[in-house]
Specification:
The chain is mainly β. It has no helices and 20 strands.
């Protein structure tokens, strides 16, 4: 008399009918009472009870704030202004994530600096207090999207920044309060027509996959960070969204994750 599902082995198993009650906590303003027009950002978990968020806004700053979670209540520490940032852009210009292992209490943020060049920041934490250790500039200007992940297989961060119709990859390693940033050769060349993109770490295969939107095609490439500078495979079309009936014209604005 139970509802079942077919497993990959060909056997069947019962479907649990238990109900989980969910609730949502009260929203809070992370940075004052004025409308600051958030432009881009990213959330992440330091551990099972500590969350962080980085973002930039129309006030031309990159911020970080850390909170502790208990049930559906977050107790936030003081907001920290990390660096001045360029406020234009809507596709995730400011991104940041913490590492794992010895890097678990450190965040590397990728953002577009006030001079419009891509920059990186190393941010440490003690409890819910964030401290900017250093910022690092690049000569890559005019980027309209960034993404960053932590590659635990190689104990480093990997970031991409869109430049024209391609992406520039960066391998980022930490020693103390100092970052070493290695720029690789361009990837997804002529495959990055639109701003939408994603960068994910695949823990099962210890690899990083970069994806870009090129018209109606979702393109993908694998980035290897085992050497001193990141390298990537030849990009392939993962899916043509028009052929699959997902879209009939180029999307205007969405975030790919």
């Amino acid at each position: 008399g139970e509802t079942v599902y077919l497993k990959g082995t060909g056997n069947v198993d019962a479907i649990s009918n238990s109900v989980v009650t969910q609730s949502v906590g009260t929203g809070v303003n992370l940075n004052g009472t004025n409308a600051r027009y958030v432009k881009g950002g990213q959330t992440f978990w330091y551990n099972s009870s500590t969350v962080g968020v980085v973002w930039n806004d129309h006030n031309q700053n990159l911020y970080i704030r850390i909170g502790t979670v208990s049930g559906n209540v977050v107790t936030w520490g003081t907001v920290t202004a990390v660096a001045q940032s360029y406020y234009a852009g809507t596709e995730g210009i400011s991104q940041g994530v913490n590492g794992s292992g010895s890097d678990s209490d450190y965040v590397v943020a990728a953002y577009r600096a006030s001079n419009e060049d891509i920059a990186f920041a190393l941010i440490s934490r003690s409890g819910t207090t964030a401290t900017t250790q250093n910022t690092y500039s690049t000569s890559l200007g005019g980027s309209s999207a960034t993404r960053i992940v932590y590659d635990s297989g190689n104990s480093c961060w990997l970031a991409i920044a869109r430049q024209g119709n391609y992406a520039v990859p960066y391998k980022i390693t930490r020693s103390g309060n100092t970052l070493t940033i290695a720029q690789g050769s361009n990837i997804l060349s002529n495959q990055f027509l639109n701003e939408q993109c994603a960068l994910v770490y695949d823990p099962d295969n210890a690899r990083v996959i970069a994806m870009s939107q090129n018209g109606n095609d979702l393109m993908g490439t694998v980035i290897n960070a085992s050497s001193s500078t990141p390298t990537a495979t030849t990009p392939v079309s993962i899916i043509n969204m028009s052929n699959e009936g997902l879209v009939t014209q180029n999307p205007d604005r969405f975030t790919m994750e």
